[in-house]
Design goal:
The chain has about 290 residues and is α+β, with helices and mostly antiparallel strands. About 20% of the residues lie in helices and about 35% in strands. The chain has a 6-stranded antiparallel sheet, with no helix packed on it. It is globular, with a radius of gyration of 20 Å. The N and C termini lie far apart (about 45 Å). It catalyses: NAD(+) + ATP = ADP + NADP(+) + H(+).
Length: about 290
């Protein structure tokens, strides 16, 4: 089995060493992302063998292992984009719906994975076309695509079309188009609905809308969403999974649709979304008890 390790800075060195030791005990070829390897080299002392350093241009992996939080997971998704490599997220952050394997469950989980005891979930992602143009590998998002006002600008007006039919015009600080996976991320923080990962849906949610009748809307993911934006500053921002914010000019047409290529996520057998949801959101617990 070929496993590629992806991560970011500020990881616990002892945790990374533990992961490497577990992988080494099995018949695993270990590859490490170039930037993560450069960070690890002066911080950890490990004498095992690394099969190669990944530059993310040509990847031949059975599993991509993301060490960090959901932000690191999304960067890993971007790195293996459209290559059909399943991703396992080890959570070293605080709140993770994508990187949902805790430090306490790490060893047991890796043992199960290496024994072939796991499932793979397909998660829908979004594809963005700007003025009808495609071809940019960065124009994909697992969580959400958002249009946002500039930091100091007044609110923007976003005209929304569903399959070329005008839906409404949102006057707000921005608008989020979220997948079911992204419904527990940025969209949730602005009052969007939670959707189960396997539902064939998308959520449209305004950020700080000017009107109280602007409510989140859930639609089928086979619909094509077209956005045009008006702004007093004549420009606005486009964010894909929060990893990039591109400046775009007023009059730009954004076409958002479900990608034909899903993101593959490695899941432990018997561990469900509902279990993660209850645990992360502390449903069923009394906050007064600390």
């Amino acid at each position: 089995m070929k496993i590629g390790i992806f991560g970011n800075e500020y990881q616990k060195s002892e945790q990374v060493v533990k992961i490497l030791d577990i992988l080494t005990k099995s018949d695993v070829q270990i590859f490490i992302q170039k930037e993560f390897h450069e960070y690890l080299s002066p911080h950890i002392h490990w004498e095992g063998r690394v099969e190669g350093i990944l530059d993310c241009k040509e990847l031949d992996l059975d599993i991509a292992l993301s060490i960090g939080g959901d932000g690191t997971f999304l960067k890993t998704v971007s790195a293996v984009q459209l290559k059909n490599i399943p991703i396992l997220g080890i959570n070293t952050g605080r709140l993770g719906f994508l990187a949902d394997v805790s430090e306490d469950d790490m060893e047991e989980t890796l043992t199960e994975i290496l024994a072939g005891k796991y499932t793979i979930e397909e998660r829908a992602q979004l594809r963005l076309l700007i003025n009808g143009k495609d071809g940019n590998p960065e124009h994909y998002a697992l969580n959400e695509i958002a249009v946002l006002k500039q930091d100091l600008a007044s609110m923007i007006t976003v005209d929304v079309f569903i399959n070329d039919e005008h839906l409404t015009s949102y006057e707000a600080d921005g608008l989020i188009i979220a997948t079911p996976t992204g419904s527990t991320a940025y969209s949730l923080s602005v009052g969007g609905p939670i959707m189960t990962p396997n539902s064939s849906t998308l959520a449209i949610t305004a950020i700080a809308p000017h009107s109280l009748n602007a409510r989140p809307l859930v639609i089928e993911d086979e619909n094509i969403i077209t956005l045009t934006v008006k702004s007093r500053s004549c420009c606005f921002l486009i964010s894909l999974d929060g990893r990039s914010k591109m400046m775009s000019a007023e009059g730009t047409t954004l076409r958002i649709e479900k990608s034909a290529v899903p993101v593959l996520i490695v899941k432990r057998i018997g561990h469900t979304f509902y279990n993660t949801l209850k645990k992360k959101l502390k449903w069923g617990t009394d906050p007064r008890l600390g």
